[in-house]
Amino acid sequence: MVKARPGLSEERPFGEPAAGNGMLSRRVFLEGAVVTGAAGAGVSSASAEPLVVESWMKEPGAAFAPYGQPSRFEDKVVRAILSPPNPPLPGIGTARTPLHLLDGMITPSGLHFERSHSGIPAAAPAQGPPTFRCGAPRVR
Questions:
Q1: Domain layout of the chain by residue ranges
Q2: Is the whole-model pTM more than 0.70?
């Protein structure tokens, strides 16, 4: 036979601590939530204003382009191209992402950070990958 713990069968007044350390019973919070929810459900005198539908929302947009272009409203969002004061070769420098102008967390591919040490090579894809040679002879 299981004995009940002393004090569990007694009724406690609303808001009285359940334990001796000052913690309130779950029943207090659940009863309060039910009362608040019931009171809030009966009070709904707020009314919404009619939505304003702009003209651009009613017309279809532009057709597809063969290559993606940025929005005309994002024309100020461009990379800052910085080069050293006395570059020995053209194409040396960095192109920095304008993080303060981006809206959201996805960086468009045309705005990624780029660092170039000697410019962008104009290699034709049909020629295959570039071959790099060093001064040491090839050992087979």
A1: 75-119
A2: no
